[in-house]
Amino acid sequence: MRKQSLWIAALLSVARNDKINMEDPLYREIILDNWENPQNYGVIKNADFDLTENNPLCGDEIRLTGKIQDGKLGEIAFVSSGCAISKASASIFTEKIKSLEISKIKKFIPIDVLEELGITLTPARTKCALLIYVAVKKGINK
Amino acid sequence: MKNLKADFPIFKIRPDLVYLDNSATSQKPKVVIDAVSNFYKSNNSNIHRGIYGLSQHATELFENTRKSIAEFIGTQTSQEIIFTSGTTESVNLVAVGYARKYLKEGDIIVLSEMEHHSNIVPWLMLREKGIQVVFIPINKEGELDYKNFKVDYKKIKLIALTHVSNVLGTINPIKEIVSFFKQNGSNAKVLVDAAQSIPHLKINVKDLDCDFLVFSSHKMLGPTGVGVLWAKRELLEKIDPLVFGSHMIERVTKEKATWTAIPDKFEAGTRNIEGVIGLGAAIDYLLNIGLETIEKYESSLTEYALSKFKNLEGIKLFGPTDSKNRLGVFSFAIGDIHPHDVAEILNRENIAVRSGHHCAQVLMDCLGVTATTRASLYFYNTESDIDKLIEGLVKVKEIFNI
């Protein structure tokens, strides 16, 4: 139930936002760079949260581990099997939130994730991009 | 065979469309679209039990399709044709109405590793009754390795196999497989999932020597929302309905209801009337081209595609590599690029392919992948469509530096 509602809320908030009007092509350098050389890729030992989130539609899967220290996200790392969009998005978003206060991370909304990617996505691919967002939300709320 | 794209309005409206997702659903020829819309324009009324002429005419149109299908699959008895909502419902009807009723604890149901979820999940639901569900493995060539499959043959009560794999394109030798099991002492009933084969191959239930045949209208040029279950009359009479309500009854009192005869017993509620009539038009259209013609043309197109795939470096094709005993369904991997990325780039070239697990996660596990990209052909595809696909794949490789 909870899993569903997080996804639905995330997708709805994006659908309602008409600010996105980003440039093509989809596979820009930023996506390909982060796909080939993802930031924060790996697994953190003795993590405060360790969870796996997947997208049953396409089988994309992300394992996210992180440490919370003094109200901040100390370390964060992910490993994923999935498409370039989900991997690049995870790389970019984890890089953005690393070392930030948890309270600040909680304020991020899905559209922020998509804006970082700088591309227009169809609804199906939006889910790929937001996989990391949902995983992070769950992780820091644990 | 001449190019028949002109029969399909969608290719006129979208002249750049390279449609290679025929295993998911086929496009619809004008004759089918017209049959559906003409029904609403000229003949709309509810079928059965209407005394007025319009309803009788609609009933006749609906029942004509039943006769066409019976003939199409080689049976004389049109009551043996049951209209469902699709292949999935047809399998469920057999699983619940037949298997749940007649199979016992310890009995074995044989499936294969290349089944679609619709021919796995309904059977898995029977495990709670203590019925075992086992899977014939596939070999490296993407064929069923049934001879090395050890199982207590006498306990096999049902064999449910796909005629053609929706991922690999493999045509399974149903007759040989069944006769192998029967020679080894099984007296199992046999269900053939013909959803992927009936659009492309001549099907005859007597030749196949099966007990149940299931398929969908929308993959064979007809409308969505219509499927068929065929079984021999004696068997259908023994099976319980899956859905209860109007039309399927003989008599209803406050205490109980009794069922009417086949096929009505299985067709509760109001069926998808215009869909069934559309399917009738699709069958007429297919017969007019001729299944042999379709088979021959698709076989040469498959050969062409296979030769192109072979020359494309970095592409791993799953399934049989020669055009014999396979249809034009091509699942492949390009390096470690996710199929969704491949499909997305192809989409930008107006090429429609499918990416994902294709409702065959058991097979994906066997292949060691989570998803594949799949291009699937039908008779309206051309060599030019395949050339465009290959060009698109070259582009994918360029973008991802493969």
Give average pLDDT of chain A, whole number: 84
Q: Which descriptor suits the 3D outline of chain A?
A: globular
Tally of alpha and pi helices of chain A: 6
The percent range for strand residues of chain B is 15-25%
Question: Can you give a write-up of this model?
Answer:
The complex is a heterodimer of chains A (142) and B (402). With 142 residues, chain A is α+β, with helices and mostly antiparallel strands. Chain A is built from six helices and three strands. In chain A, α2 (29-36) crosses α3 and α5 (110-117) packs across α6 (123-140). The radius of gyration of chain A is 14 Å and the shape is globular. Mean pLDDT of chain A is 84; it is low at 16-24. Chain B is an alpha/beta fold. Chain B contains 13 helices and 15 strands. In chain B, β9 (249-252) and β10 form a beta hairpin. The two termini of chain B are 37 Å apart. The chains are: A alpha+beta (142), B alpha/beta (402). Chains A and B meet through α6 of A and α11 of B.
Task: Please give a handful of descriptors for the protein shown.
heterodimer; A: 142 residues; alpha+beta; B: seven-stranded mixed sheet; four-stranded antiparallel sheet
Concise account of the structure shown:
The complex is a heterodimer of chains A (142) and B (402). Chain A is an alpha+beta fold.
Detail the topology: elements first, then pairings.
The complex is a heterodimer of chains A (142) and B (402).
Chain A: H1 2-16, H2 29-36, E1 49-55, E2 60-69, E3 72-81, H3 84-97, H4 102-106, H5 110-117, H6 123-140
Antiparallel strand pairs in A: 1-2, 2-3
Helix pairs in contact in A: 1-6, 2-3, 3-5, 3-6, 5-6
Chain B: H1 9-13, E1 18-19, H2 30-43, H3 53-72, E2 81-84, H4 87-102, E3 108-112, H5 121-124, E4 132-136, E5 156-162, H6 174-183, E6 189-193, H7 205-208, E7 212-216, E8 227-231, H8 233-238, E9 249-252, E10 257-259, H9 273-289, H10 291-310, E11 315-318, E12 329-334, H11 339-347, E13 351-352, E14 354-356, H12 361-367, E15 372-376, H13 383-399
Helix pairs in contact in B: 2-9, 3-9, 10-13, 11-13
